[in-house]
Amino acid sequence: MIDTSNFDLKAYLKKQAEVVNRALEAYFPADASYIGNLGEVMRYSLFPGGKRFRPILTLAVAEALGLDPKLALPAACSFELVHCFSLVHDDLPCMDNDDMRRGKPTVHKAYGEDTALLAGDALVIEAFNVAAKTAIPNHPELTIAIVKELAEASGHLGMVGGQILDMEAQHHGADQEKLLAVHKGKTGALIRGAARVGAIAAQADPDTLEAITEYSEILGLVFQITDDILDSADDPDPISFPTLFGMEESKRIAKEKTARALELIEPLGEKAIPLAALANYLLVRTV
Question: Residues 202, 203, 208, 212: is their CA dihedral positive or negative?
């Protein structure tokens, strides 16, 4: 078992989030020339950001596999851009109709629905431009693989497909199998893809890539289970793990799956300490 007892995850997350934020600032500088107010709106949706969990996961995987994480930074940022795009569109009146996000008015409340729609479009399109900037020396084919991974994680086979399943579940109900399918796409696909591009950039062998893939799929599942558990205290959702699996069974699944995730990365040794700490954190997080 990888020992994380002396690892300061909070400091690590803060430091890595700053790395990601500096990169995003370089891609979307405040003083750049944008068409109309599009730059202002995109920056509004990007800054200040959340935990930057997905890009940090990319960097942690790359580093655990021996790659300078700076080389994986464009790929990491591309997944954050897709994540932020999804939040802008999820908040729209035709979707979740939310008024607040990260302590401030949602994009459509601040700038209007039409502008929010276009800003989200611009973010997701730019994500592929950013992903294409990933340059691993002497391996241009890896750039293509990373862009492909981003597309699969984002589109009808991933996040967008999961969102459709979620909408169907909200209208027609869901069983345990449907719930797992919803979150494998809606939540899990971007987390899985973010981890995989870190491994792809590091030229992971097939067995290691398979281990990282399963590890990240578990992270996505545990992320959603703990999210549902935290939400259940205030507003129980009929389409959630505590409702459909039961509170105790949900906790058991999360604990069992986390143990499996830690087992998968154990061969990577001390370089995987951040990955182990992330898995442990998701299991016990309170926010």
Answer: positive
**Rounded to an integer, what distance in angstroms lies between the CA atom of residue 274 and that of residue 57?**
9
Cα–Cα–Cα angle for 10, 53, 164, nearest 5°?
Answer: 150
- Rounded CA-CA distance 96/139 in Å is 42
Residue 11 has which token pair? 């400091």
Structure tokens at 111: 């700038």
Nearest to 80 by CA among 104, 101, 97, 56: 56
Question: Helices marked H in the chain — which ranges?
Answer: 9-27, 38-46, 53-64, 73-90, 107-111, 113-131, 140-154, 159-172, 176-186, 188-201, 206-232, 241-245, 247-265, 273-284
Average of per-residue pLDDT values in the chain: 97
| Separation of alpha carbons 6 and 88, rounded Å | 38
Instruction: Report pLDDT digits (tens) over 13-29.
Output: 999 999 999 999 999 99
pLDDT at 234: 76
Q: What are phi and psi of 104, to 5 degrees?
A: -145, 165
Would you call the peptide bond into 55 cis, given omega within 30 degrees of 0 as the criterion? no
pLDDT tens-place string over residues 199-228: 999 999 999 999 999 999 999 999 999 999
3-class secondary-structure state, position 104: strand
Residue 1 has pLDDT above 90, yes or no: no
